[in-house]
Every structure is written in structure tokens, then in C-alpha cells.
Design goal:
GO terms for molecular function: deaminase activity. The chain has 131 residues and is an alpha+beta fold. 23% of the residues lie in helices and 28% in strands.
């Protein structure tokens, strides 16, 4: 498998992700949007930081179960229930300070949204990996 990441000239600089991720792979892995639910199905926390920590843990577990690592991630979409850019930035920073950080060097999108699927849910992350 080969993954290359680039920022073509003529595009704006990024805060760590790359505009283009090119993959030659045998296997693609699509994770369901990972929510801040603990193994018993309960919302892990009321705080954005606590929920982000649970989502990170869930993604790491799902990647591992598929035989993948954060370095194998080729695309992420991060959904945060907020219109406050500082909250979106805080999630981005927390993700990039975590064991999952290599996943966010690939093509990534960070969105503030009005609603997520579970009551009280503040964050969800959609992940694609390649092996």
C-alpha cells in the first residue's frame, strides 16, 4: 500500500492536514461515524473534551479490530455540535495531541453542525483507512 499526502501550489496552507491524499491499496476500511458512547452504550461525558476522548478511544479500537493504525487513515470528517469556532479548534487541537494524531495529516474536514444522532452528543468522527 502507498499513501502520499500533498498540498498543491495555489491552495491555502493548512493547520496540519493535507489537501490531497492519494492511495494505492488492496483494502479500504470504512468506519461508521464514531460517537462518544462507552462500551455499555452510555454517553461518556457531558463535556466536549470528554466526548472527544471517548471518540478517540472508539476509533483506535475500531481501527485495531480491522488491523489498521492511525497512520493508515486516508480521510476524516469531524462533526462538532457547535457554531463556536473556538470549540471546533479545541477539538482539532485535542485530536492532534492524541494517539490518533497521524490520522489527521490526511485529507480532513472539520464541520460545525446543528444536531447529531444521540441526545447530548457533541462530536462524531467519520474515518476511512487503507491497507
Amino acid at each position: 500500500m502507498t499513501i502520499s499526502r500533498s498540498n498543491p501550489s495555489g491552495l491555502h496552507p493548512t493547520p496540519g492536514y493535507h489537501h490531497v491524499t492519494t492511495v494505492q491499496a488492496d483494502t479500504l476500511i470504512y468506519l461508521a461515524g464514531q460517537c462518544p458512547l462507552d462500551p455499555s452504550g452510555d454517553l461518556a461525558s457531558d463535556s466536549l473534551s470528554g466526548q472527544t476522548t471517548q471518540v478517540i478511544d472508539n476509533i483506535l479500537a475500531a481501527l485495531s479490530a480491522a488491523g489498521a493504525r492511525p497512520d493508515d487513515v486516508v480521510r476524516t470528517v469531524i462533526y462538532v455540535k457547535s457554531t463556536d469556532r473556538s470549540e471546533l479548534a479545541a477539538v482539532w487541537t485535542q485530536l492532534n495531541d492524541s494517539a490518533l494524531a497521524p490520522a489527521f495529516t490526511s485529507a480532513s474536514t472539520l464541520l460545525g453542525v446543528a444536531q447529531l444522532g444521540f441526545p447530548g452528543q457533541l462530536v462524531e468522527i467519520d474515518v476511512t483507512a487503507a491497507l
